[in-house]
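Dear colleague,

Following up on Tuesday's group meeting, I ran the structure prediction for the two-component complex that the binding team flagged. I've pasted the input sequences exactly as they went in, so you can double-check that nothing got truncated or mislabelled along the way. The structure tokens for the whole assembly follow below. Feel free to forward this to whoever is handling the docking comparison.

Inputs:
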Amino acid sequence: MGKRVVVDPISRIEGHLRVEVEISGGKVVNAWSSGQMFRGIEMILEGRDPRDAHHFVGRSCGV
Amino acid sequence: MAVGVQIPENARILRNLLHGAQVQHDHIVHFYHLHALDWVDIVSALSADPKKTAALADNVSEAPWGGVSYYKSVQDRIKTFVDSGQLGPFANAYWGHPAYKLPPEANLMATAHYIEALRLQAKAARMHAIFGGKNPHPQSLVVGGITSVRDLSPDRIAEFLYITRETQEFIKKVYIPDLLAVASFYKDWGGIGGTSNFLAYGEFPETSAEPESLYMPRGLIVNRNVGGVKPVDQKQVTEDVTHAWYERGDAKHPYSGETKPIQENPEYRPGSGQYTWLKAPRYEDLSCEVGPLARVLVAYGKGHKDVKPLVDSTLQKLDVPVQALFSTLGRTAARGLETIAVGDRIETWMGALLANIKNGDTKTYEPWEMPDSGEGYGLNDVPRGSLGHWIRIEDGKIGKYQYVVPSTWNLGPRDAKGVLGPMEEALIGTPVADPKQPLEILRTVHSFDPCIACAVHVIDPDSNEVYKIKAL
């Protein structure tokens, strides 16, 4: 098994991302990307007035 | 769509202007402030000769600032930072890493432009505020159209045009020349960090016909077959939760999608277990990269009249083959090329808006009735990539709502079949000179422009206290 390298948190991005790679012979041979935060806006929306939806979701993604 | 409304032409144009302005702004910020320091060694800039830097800048860019004294003053500013031990925005990087290839003068030039881009982006953000009320998260978008009625005035439109033109000038005279100058030292990255499949929903409808009239077209590229761009059907989108911290279940289309986080403490188990909050979006079971590279490849494959010549001339300038597009370098270059095309197109959209207003058409909203039941979706391509929202209305309320966002596509995990997410795939084969300083990893990760949290600000109306809630 190669050497494991974890970069956590990754800086200069929006959010919290963890990246783990396995290095063998000076190259990455395996990689795992891990989003470290739960969104869950969908759960907040259920049962609400549909006209409210864009006020919520427009604030969590669109870039 | 769920309510069966067709938005007026002006609303469509204003949405294009907002999206286009965001592409201009966002891509500049990404290149200079989120990505450049993976290629540019700030500390090396200290040993640059300001005179040689001025000559280099005159040679490679048409930046409106420069000269020996200018570069000397920028160098002095960096020196103050470094001497104080407070690196500010330049803290936490692998300065002096052997993978940095730029000569000191190129590092100084790029650092100067990093600072200039900070000023420029503050101005560019105002475009969004003109028709959207604020940046980010515009306030003027509503079902049925757009509410920026009072902003269709000569002074507001003139201000927008003034800023978009100034921004476009920066893009053409500074951003793109910098991109090419930096890329010429890192051509080996044209063979590192590529993926296989590309999905673009497309963006910027120029009539009510979608996807036919989209300026940046919709399409799917499988196994790098750029010549065989396939049509896209949203029915083929699913999300798989095998390796994500959700209750087990089959891959589901967003209309029937679920958000059921596991109830126990999430344990990080890379390998065969669960290891992320991101689901794994798939198109026809394919792991697809989305974003500027996907959009540019789809446009290129379809022979886009503006994008194709931009790509061809760039490949020629850098003297690299088409295959070099499937890489970290290709992803970063595509972002810049798209910015030229979209930024230029803003003039066309504004022309159409002005013609409508001249003819007395100032309609921006179409009334509609709220149905008791229905379903609908919206597909967009925002700066970071393909964004889809799906809603099902039941008894006048939201029955189901799911959205699949660009960074979930790009940074998602493996699926049930063990197929890697696009960024995981892209990292395989990346050379790492020093595992303790994995600069090369950051290059590929940053090239996707990850956005996995947007700050949601909640204000307590009693205390005016601002709570910050992070949302994925």
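Chain B touches chain A through 77 residues (CB under 8 Å).

Cheers,
M.
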